[in-house]
Amino acid sequence: MDETRAAIVAAAELLFIRDGYARTTIGDIAEEAGVVVQTIYNAVGPKSTLLSAVLDRAAAGPMAPRSVPEFMSERSVQVTDAAEMADMLADWFVEVQPRVLGINRVIREAAASDPAVAELEVRRASQRLRNYGQAADAFARLPGTRTMPREDIAATIWSIGHPQSYAHLTQVEGWSDERYRDWVARALAAALVIDRPTDSPARG
């Protein structure tokens, strides 16, 4: 069943990005995946649930079917201070954003006319914010983190790493992924990391 589900989600991703959400039918996905329509409902669910599964697959990338919170938790325990945590998150954002760029565009466009997708877009944005609570907890355990409420740290990460920020900066403003990554690292550090003291010049 896992292999069948993976084939269905991969087929849906291909068709959603190529043809758009509205024009892609469950029958099209079944044909592309080599299954019958009922298998899609049994293995994944209705079309909007399938769209959410595509987003999960794109976000996890080569780590799929493991969830993003699961393997990001493992990465966070390897860092030793707040500045390193900001760098780790910047590396993650520049890793994940190109993978989800296409399917996020599909969701954004479909949400304008499909209530189920509009609800999905809002729900997934709230889910990202909740997931960044995990990163906020990691920051709170690390030396060098500013004293802030957990919700503020999560909201800061959510805002700086928002997919629409990446889409606009790289697709409209022409930023390279490297420039985007460096901006994220600096923005997170400015907001969440205590400035390290510098040596003052000697006075004589």
Sum up the structure in keywords.
204 residues; mainly alpha; 10 helices; elongated; disordered C terminus
Which strand-content bin applies to the residues? Answer: under 5%
Residue runs with pLDDT of under 50 for 5 or more positions: 197-204
Number of helices: 10
Whole-Å distance between the termini?
A: 76 Å
Mean pLDDT: 94
Largest sheet: none
Shape type: elongated
- Quantity of strands, as a count: 0
Task: Classify the helix fraction into a percent range.
Answer: over 70%
Task: Give the H and E element order.
Answer: HHHHHHHHHH
Q: Determine the structural class based on helices, strands and strand pairing.
A: mainly alpha
Radius of gyration: 20 Å
What does this structure look like?
- This protein is mainly α.
- The protein has a domain at 67-192.
- It contains ten helices and no strands.
- It starts with a helix and ends in a 12-residue tail after the last helix.
Quick structural gist:
This protein is mainly alpha-helical. It has ten helices and no strands.
Q: Mind sketching the topology for me?
A:
Elements (H helix, E strand, L loop, with lengths): L1 H18 L6 H8 L3 H7 L3 H14 L7 H9 L5 H30 L3 H27 L8 H11 L2 H10 L4 H16 L12
